[in-house]
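User: Just a sanity check before I run the rest of the batch. Below are the structure tokens for the first item. I only need the designed sequence back.
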């Protein structure tokens, strides 16, 4: 049986906590449930405005829970410094807008970007695996590869938003072709954004897929069936 890893994003556990400024629901407890339910790693997006995940969440999960931590972050000097201090197992560099509700698409990678390349080099050189969140476009994928990224996380936003079988198949084909290129470049292939219990299976079956990072749909499902069941159900769907 092929093993597609599942990264479970717990940002919105922290969103609920921040709504009241209380200690619960606790991200450490959430991380423990993720690992015990079949999740392969915990994903946290430390946004610059700290709207949900806080620095202390990453510190506590790192020190109190045994398991892999994947940090999503903007490509800024502040976040680079924090990543080197907090020591996640892996990092995904993502675009980040101050007023966006969620990430709107992949990184803009065309053209010379020495700042981004330097951050990738520094993180990778310190032993942190670096992925770049990219649209399923050859130019973006090749640019990330040339900058030294270890992995590509394909943005599945357009696929998830596609209405009707014909359009969904078209978007899935884009992801498949992008996946071929990622593997041709000998990089890890990840994907995420908008994936849920109804659309995830075809993406999980893309040849060479290594990992899917999913958050909102799992936390939403957890409100009705519990986090343990929600994670286990998603894990079964991607195998």
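Assistant: Here's the designed sequence for the first item:
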């Amino acid at each position: 049986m092929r093993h597609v890893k599942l990264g479970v994003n717990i940002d919105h556990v922290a969103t609920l906590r921040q709504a009241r400024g209380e200690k619960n629901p606790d991200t450490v407890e959430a991380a423990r449930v993720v690992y015990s339910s079949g999740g392969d790693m915990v994903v946290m997006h430390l946004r610059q405005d700290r709207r949900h995940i806080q620095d202390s969440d990453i510190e506590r999960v790192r020190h109190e829970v045994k398991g892999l931590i994947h940090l999503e972050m903007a490509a800024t000097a502040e976040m680079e410094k924090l990543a080197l201090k907090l020591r996640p197992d892996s990092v995904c560099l993502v675009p980040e807008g101050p007023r966006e509700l969620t990430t709107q698409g992949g990184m803009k990678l065309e053209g010379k970007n020495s700042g981004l390349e330097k951050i990738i080099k520094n993180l990778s050189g310190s032993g942190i695996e670096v992925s770049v969140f990219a649209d399923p476009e050859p130019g973006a994928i090749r640019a990330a590869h040339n900058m030294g990224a270890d992995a590509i996380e394909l943005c599945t936003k357009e696929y998830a938003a596609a209405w009707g079988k014909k359009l969904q198949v078209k978007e899935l084909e884009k992801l498949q072709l992008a996946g071929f290129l990622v593997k041709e470049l000998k990089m890890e292939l990840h994907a995420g954004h908008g994936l849920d219990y109804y659309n995830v299976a075809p993406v999980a079956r893309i040849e060479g897929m290594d990992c899917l990072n999913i958050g909102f749909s799992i936390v939403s499902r957890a409100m009705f069936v519990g986090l343990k069941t929600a994670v286990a159900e998603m894990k079964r769907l991607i195998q």
